[in-house]
Amino acid sequence: MVARVIPVSPFDLVLFGATGDLALRKVLPALAHRFADGQMPKGARIIGAARSEMDSDTFRAMVGKALADTPNPAPPARRKAFLARLDYVTLDARGDAGWQVLRDQLRGDVIRAFYFSVAPGLFEPLAERLDRWALVTPDTRVVVEKPFGHDLDSAQALNTMLARHFTEAQIYRIDHYLGKETVQNLMAVRFANILFEPLWNARFIDHVQITVAESGGVGGRGAYYDGAGAMRDMVQNHLMQLLCLTAMEPPHRFDADAMRDEKLKVIRALDPVAPDRVVRGQYGAGESGPSLLDELGNPGSDTESYIALKVGISNWRWKGTPFYLRTGKRLAARVSEIAVTFRDPPHSIFGENARWRENVLVIRLQPDEGMDLRVMIKEPGPGGMRLKDVALDMSFAEALGDDTPIPDAYERLIMDVIRGNQTLFMRGDEVEAAWAWTDPVIAAWAQAGKRPLAYAPGTAGPDAAAALLKRDGRRWREVK
Ligand code: BG6
Q1: Which atom of ligand 1 lies closest to the CA of 224?
Q2: Separation in Å, CA 412 to CA 178, 224, 337, 396, 442
Q3: pLDDT tens digit string along 153-183?
Q4: Which residue of 148, 173, 228, 313 has the fewest C-beta atoms within 10 A of its own C-beta?
Q5: How many CA within 13 A on the CB side of residue 387?
Q6: Ligand 1 atom showing the smallest separation from residue 329 Cα
Q7: What percent of the chain lies above the pLDDT cut of 90?
Q8: Ligand 1 atom 6: residue of nearest CA
Q9: What atom in ligand 1 is closest to the CA of residue 336?
């Protein structure tokens, strides 16, 4: 990847929840990489804030260790220089302790970003205190991590609460999938080429499969995951975003509101999903670890670690082309992709018996980011016109001829926060629309009293998921 690094303006970034898992595993390493690449100017500072009593040196040591443990850490000298940009404030999110100290640390003439890397229960106390301590300047942004609500009501309440303290232009609701390079590439593939767009509709596309398969389990996140499940944890946000970017109309410009207006239209056009178009599963125990129920510590849990659904979009472009979504934990492989299967040509000049495979465009989000287009060609050699499908396979890393690792989604997103670019963040109405579609799906399966099906770890999920497509005469792509 050819990196073109444009330094951002000086900033103070206050990271609430700085000693938590997300901060240490994702946010701070992302900042360290941007620093190592020269994107942070001299006046860029990061202030960790959390409840634990410690001084800045102890915090720097803690972050230094976390950075060393990440994949592809920056060179040691750059890490050391990055740590010098960190400070720490012990702060009580629900009380007054520490707020004056934080206030004294902030400079008046630079961009301010407050990053809520905390449990959702702390969003409101933090927002209130930022306001009460007069820390919100016109150049302030707040970054809100997921989960953004648990259902429509709670998301609306959260939006209303945030609107009391900040303008919409100051609120950055993160969905880290939007920061993934290849997710952004989806927009480039669609809107920077003439090739696909004329065919990008129900007339030429038979169906779309969106898969986000994970090989890992729930691990130590049971307390959050139980009651959330794959629908709330992955479909309402990440898969929904992938669906929107695949299905939306071309925005007139690549800017925040133009993009989000188009995504919102897609969400509003989604059909309700009947319980018999949903398959939910729970992984059992295996070599890779204990069962979901054991990890949740709740033998009666109804939470799903796998979900597959058939989704229809009622608009002119897509009516009649189903989108099949699936995501799950402890599956055979970690693979995320969008596969667009085209319809057959209207007539075969090669006769009834010619072996035929559909054209499929696969956009691989991870791993081995790239694109693969399956096309029919003549099989070489004598013996008449025999057809064969082959892949025009492109790995972005190879095509771009560079072995620079693809930046983590958080790197791009945090720099966009500082730049004030909301294009890759969700607007309040978009999140609410996503919940408005999600809630009835969950309510319908709850009412139908359908329990999740067991599946063996290391597989593609419950067998019933295969049946969901089979009855439409289709097949899932392999998870491998
Ligand atoms: C998070 C979910 O938002 O995304 C996790 O809460 C999930 O459950 C993760 O594992 C997947 O992200 P990625 O970037 O590893 O595909």
Answers
A1: 6
A2: 9, 26, 20, 18, 33
A3: 999 999 999 999 999 999 999 999 999 988 8
A4: 228
A5: 16
A6: 10
A7: 84
A8: 233
A9: 16
Pocket test for ligand 1, best of 176, 180, 330 (most atoms within 8 A of CB): 176
For Cα atoms 59, 61, 63, give the angle at the middle one, nearest 5 degrees: 70
C-alpha 11 – ligand 1 centre gap (Å): 28
Which atom of ligand 1 is the closest one to the Cα of 409?
14
Among 99, 50, 388, 343, smallest CA distance to 203 is for 343
Residue owning the nearest CA to atom 5 of ligand 1: 233
End-to-end Cα, the chain, rounded Å: 26
In angstroms, the Cα distances linking 6 to 9, 32, 183 are 10, 16, 21
What's phi and psi for 152, nearest 5 deg? -60, -45
CA distance 62 to 15: 15
CA 179 to chain centre: 8
Measured in Å, residue 456 CA sits from the centre of ligand 1 at 21
For the chain, which residues make up each domain, given as ranges? 11-145, 178-406+427-470
pLDDT score, position 397? 78
Q: Which CATH class is domain 11-145?
A: alpha beta
How far apart (Å, rounded) are the C-alpha atoms in residues 43 and 11?
6
Catalytic residues: 238
SS3 for 151-191 is: CHHHHHHHHHHHHHHCCHHHEEECCHHHHCHHHHHHHHHHH
Residues with CB under 6 A from ligand 1: 146, 214, 233
DSSP secondary structure letters along 421-475? --TTSB-HHHHHHHHHHHHHHHHHHHHHTPPPEEE-TTBSS-HHHHHHHHTTT--
Comparing CA positions, the residue from 335, 212, 231, 245 lying closest to residue 273 is 231
pLDDT along the chain (480 residues), means of 10: 77 98 96 95 96 97 96 90 97 96 95 97 97 96 95 98 97 96 89 95 98 95 93 98 97 95 98 95 95 96 97 98 98 97 90 80 90 91 85 83 79 97 97 98 92 96 96 96
For the entire predicted model, the pTM comes to: 0.95
Q: What local confidence, expressed as pLDDT, does residue 402 receive?
A: 66
Distance in angstroms (rounded) separating the CA atoms of residues 176 and 121: 21
| Overall fold of domain 178-406+427-470 | Dihydrodipicolinate Reductase; domain 2 (3.30.360)
Distance in Å, CA 299 to ligand 1 centroid: 24
Question: Which residue, by CA, sits nearest to atom 4 of ligand 1?
Answer: 234
For 140, what's the count of Cα atoms within 13 Å in the CB-facing half-sphere?
18
Mean pLDDT, the chain, integer: 94
What is the rounded (10 degree) CA torsion for 364, 365, 368, 374? 10
Using the 8-state DSSP alphabet, how is residue 7 labeled? -
